[in-house]
Amino acid sequence: MQATDEAPPSSQFHSDADRSANDGPRRAAVYRALSNYKTARDRTGATFTDWKSARAAASTIKHEAVNNLDKYLEQFERNFTARGGKVFWANDSRQARDYILNLAKEKNVKAIVKSKAMTGEEIHLNEALVAEGFGVVESDLGEFIQQLKGEAPYHFVFPCMHLRRDEISDLFNRELGTAKTNSPEELTMIARKVLRRTYIEADMGISGGNFIVADAGMISITENEGNARLTVGVPRIHVALVGIEKVVPRLGDLALLLPMLATAGTGQHLTGYNSMYGGPRQPGENDGPEEFHVVLLDNHRTRLLADPEQRDALHCIRCGACLNVCPIFKNIGGHTYGTTYQGPIGSVITPHFRGLQDWKHLSGASSLCGACTETCPVGIDIHHHLLRNRRNAVTQKPTPLENLMWKAFSFLMRRPRLYSFATKVAPLAAKLHPLVQGTLADPVRVWTDTRDFPEPAAESFRTQFKRHQSTRASQTESTNTTR
What we know:
Elements: H1 9-21, H2 24-45, H3 51-67, H4 69-81, E1 86-90, H5 93-106, E2 111-114, H6 118-122, H7 125-131, E3 135-138, H8 141-149, H9 165-176, H10 184-201, E4 204-207, E5 211-213, E6 218-223, H11 227-233, E7 237-243, E8 247-248, H12 254-266, E9 273-277, E10 291-297, H13 301-305, H14 321-325, H15 327-332, H16 343-354, H17 356-359, H18 361-364, H19 371-375, H20 382-396, H21 400-413, H22 416-436, H23 445-448, H24 461-482
Parallel strand pairs: 1-10, 2-3, 2-4, 4-7, 5-8, 7-10
Antiparallel strand pairs: 5-6, 6-9
Helix pairs in contact: 2-12, 9-10, 16-20
């Protein structure tokens, strides 16, 4: 769910979070799905000879690529265009949308089929195409379901993981006129029947890309349904919309990255379909598009690249593993984030992509448990980046009340006598707190609205220590007297 124009992103977030957290059945369904994922991932990860070393190697590959982004992207462009492909460098979402729209108009495109591409969600491509009169159909089953519902993906690997079978059945009955069924096979066949005709009728196929391979000049696409292959192979024009950070130096790097993406993303040894595309149909080939365009999307990625402290967030391979282990995501769900990239990694990169002050609240939606960092297959320091976003937001635009509170805290902690006095009156303050809670006189009401105010100790450590020392001294004196 995108934040509305009437409400700022933070207000929309808190409203949606309250509603999602109180939806017990939905939370239970998400918990079950992610528990099954964890079991599969742990089982598959255990088959690696050394998972820790594999993570380090994958991180090194991405570090090399991101820190030499210009070199490898230019190498890709040379190799790709040598086989007849076309590359467009889009600085922002508007340029990317305009290029695809103008291409569709120029080529007299009537119908478009699209496989899963989070970059398409990022630039609101479907909305732009529909507004210009182009029919667009999502070919990924989960994305197709979400498109019928008029919703954004719930999770960027499992787009409709929050829905039950009966809800999907009701949706198909309402939108497609099919009979109700709770059989996953029958539901899949209903979608397949609709989509197969779409591939044949489409003039343009739009895809994303999991990796851009520089030395091969090819796009790597990973999927489990085969829909991307049909999206690429049947229409006469193929457009791949890919973020510039997806580049890797060598074809051989995929020998590690593809199994790690599958393991971290879905708990598989290898995803069902792994395809490489290196240009339009060549002489003597029987299938493939007549034209192949790659749109390399920046859209503020170079803003993040310019930050050496947080640059490694661009290493992300969009496996979704951090979402799957995040206690916040499990409770509030993907739509609550109000942005394309949800969960911990989304909370890191969205403020860079869309503005720190408008989206700083996402970095506060974290328990800082570190599960995201621990599970990331390329070793991104996610939970510390969330802290850095918080720090940067305060540095960029200080909050007067928060500044005052921290100055008061600093003043108190540097004056032992005053601190000692404060610990003595703390029990009295705790008794008075309920009288002012929820009023303007309570500066921490946002925190205490959902948490119990901590009970102060009846006796300070200093007092206990002094009594302990006094008791020991008395015991020593008594022992000496006896002797």
